[in-house]
Amino acid sequence: MWVGAQAVPEVDPQRPSGARVYDYYLGGTHNFAADRQAAAVALEAMPDLPVVVRTGRAFLRRAVAEAATAGLNQFLDLGAGIPAAGSVPEVARAVRPDCRIVSVDLDPVAVVHSRRVAADDPGQAAVLADLTDADEVLTAPGVRQALDFDLPVCLLAVAVAHFIPDTERLGRALERYREALAPGSWLVMSHACEEDESPHAKQILRIYNHTTSPMMLRSRDEFRALFGDWTLLPPGVTAAADWRPSRDPAPDPRPSRGEIIVGAAVKPGLGETAASRTRRAHADGNLSAISVPERTWP
């Protein structure tokens, strides 16, 4: 894999990290006592939080599988987190073995483990960077070697945008990514949403504001605006559990509320053919070729 000269800073194990708390919810072991303590407090406020996280994770798997089935074989995963079963490379390459994946994260633990998993794979790169600095990401060592930006790329921003409170900065970064990608590229996103400002949501916000990943909830309209002028694929912006659910062979129990909203969009233009095949398959009811491989992931 491509690593370049990027150094990884030391980790403060006393301060919880959003990536490591997420790893804990998924049953992972790459987390510290501070992360587990923060997760325990969050679970007291919202006991079904692990189900919400797994539902969002299942959406990621379905979206990656559909993008690969539609013909995309390049993935830029922003806020990739710590590798877990059913990762983007695992799902994408089960559909297309030639897929190339670049993962980006600001958490050193996530990047170190991504590099260990990728090992000497020339089709993967792990970048330590702030995803809101799009130019830094797009020019980071390994990115241009792994991805060809003259061809469509699937840009993933799943379970990460709500950790960027500065909406203007987030919007500028996503605009820069959209500009850099070829027509036919996909943008797949999810976001924490609680439009009725429930006490549970406010408590979760307070907990995450004491981690390295402060959290912000956004409305459906605010989330939809993050896609810019790209064309939303069916079913548009919806709850994570409702985004093409029949494509997941082992769906998780539905969360009691629609805490996670999701969507996928395609960049219009001459290169839209791959995404058009997916839309046409849904319109015709011919979904047999659009499926997550028969594998059970947490």
Brief sketch in words of this structure:
This protein has 298 residues and is α/β, with parallel strands linked by helices. It has helices at 18-25, 33-45, 49-69, 88-95, 108-118, 134-138, 143-146, 167-180, 199-208, 220-225, 273-284; strands spanning 74-78, 100-105, 124-128, 154-157, 186-192, 231-232, 238-239, 260-266. Helix 1 crosses helix 2, helix 2 (33-45) packs antiparallel against helix 9 and helix 3 runs parallel beside helix 4 (88-95).
Explained architecture:
With 298 residues, this protein is of the alpha/beta class. It contains eleven helices and eight strands. It has a single domain, classed as Vaccinia Virus protein VP39 (Rossmann fold, 3-Layer(aba) Sandwich), CATH 3.40.50.150. Strands 1, 2, 3, 4, 5, 6, 7 and 8 form an eight-stranded mixed β-sheet that branches. Strand 4 (154-157), helix 8 (167-180) and strand 5 form a beta-alpha-beta unit. Helix 1 (18-25) packs across helix 2 (33-45), helix 2 runs antiparallel to helix 9 (199-208) and helix 3 runs parallel beside helix 4 (88-95). The two termini are 26 Å apart.
